[in-house]
Amino acid sequence: MINLLKEHANALEKEYLFRFYTAFTQLQNLHHEFGYVQDLKTLHQFFRQLIQSESLSFQGEPLQGLQLMGVLETRVLDFENVIITSVNEGILPGNHQQNTFIPFDVKTAFGLPTYREKDALFSYHFFRLLQRAKNIYILYNTEHDVFGSGEKSRFVTQLEMMRNDITETVVSPKVVSMPILLKEIQKDQNVLIRLQELAEKGISPSAITSYLYNPMVFYKQKILKINELEDVEETVAANTMGTVVHDTLEELYKPFEGKFLQVKDIEKMQQKTTELVTYYFSKHFKNGDITTGKNRLIFEVANRFVENFLSKEKHLLKDENNQLKIIATEQELSSEIRVEGIDFPVKIKGIVDRIDELNGVTRIIDYKTGKVESTHLKVLDFEAIRELKYHKAIQVMLYAFLYTQHTQFHFEKPLEAGIISFKNLKSGFLQMNFSSNYRTPDNAITQEKLEDFMTEIKAIILELYNPAINFVEVANLPY
């Protein structure tokens, strides 16, 4: 490939290619001698390390044209026009860091060269270079970035004190702001037909939050049916670990549906934890190795998530006053709603991770392997639920609505909904809170609150099905 590119390259590009050829030849010789390179990733790391140490020498006619030189190459040479770049402190002169085991005091005592002599040497060459020049341009960077601190060299400050014929100019690129054109998709007849099909099949709470987060994502996934590419995982992805934890807990709790849990039941679950986590990792993380490296750490984290959760359940049940009944796990729920302005019913569906009853209180629980705080579930005004921070609240409230419709729930019994966050397990069951007073939280989900909530959800659905409102990309998405 290098030989092919060489035929169409100029002189500078040929020098680049020669350096690449040198690096590859060196790698090849090392591989033949030691045979350490076993995969492409190792080869890439060695190549990057080698290529970083390569440098190009600029060669040209020494008596004409522009001469690119280092400071030390200018010794005993005079120029009419001089351009010195990167005259920043730490570059000219260089920093005081020296790779040596000899302390500074020892060097001074024995007359060994230190950074002081180096600074004096560069100071001499700098002022010697300017001695007979007619036009001098000294450039330094004023921005704090990876190339320096943005402080001009002490040599420049010294020069300013010595002379009064210096002109200082600040040069910066002109920034032209370009208007950002957001993508916009009109709801034509095909889109409306697809939306109606979606209403018949069912819209999930995650689809609604996806629409609120970015309508273009909803359009691609639900209208065009474009799913994300399934990459071959070398490292366990976050969603894979979440699936493993969910499936493990479902397997553990499924036999106890409709029963009251006892401490001995949790102890039996604890004996199966590692085996089940290993099984579901092998199921969802196919052809992956979880015995070493980062994957092993992620496996241990998932296993610890389940173990800590069961320990917390066991601690809850050790109190004889607590009665915990498992009603359902991974329960599929659905309900059709009528929205004024839409000619057909819209089906909402979802899968609730867990429904239980603790001391007579029915709880709708959603598992999250990510970090969730109680503030994410604190809603004082349902009109604000479009905001990103309330999207988790939308999910659990919709699950609560679906459950009440599915079971014809009587609101004489208390009902709560919330999230168990495995990264915030110490906080326990994070419940929906409708009170502004943190000392007296209001966690009860009543029929009136659900009706107010569904009023806002219907407004969102009406907007989604409105032909006059296009799918518009959201600018400045938070990440």
From TrEMBL:
Cross-referenced InterPro entries: P-loop_NTPase, PDDEXK-like_dom_sf, PDDEXK_AddAB-type, Restrct_endonuc-II-like
Domain of life from the UniProt record: Bacteria
Domain PD-(D/E)XK endonuclease-like per the UniProt entry, residue ranges: 203-466
Pfam families listed in its UniProt record: PDDEXK_1
Protein name per the record: PD-(D/E)XK nuclease family protein
Source organism of this protein record: Tenacibaculum tangerinum
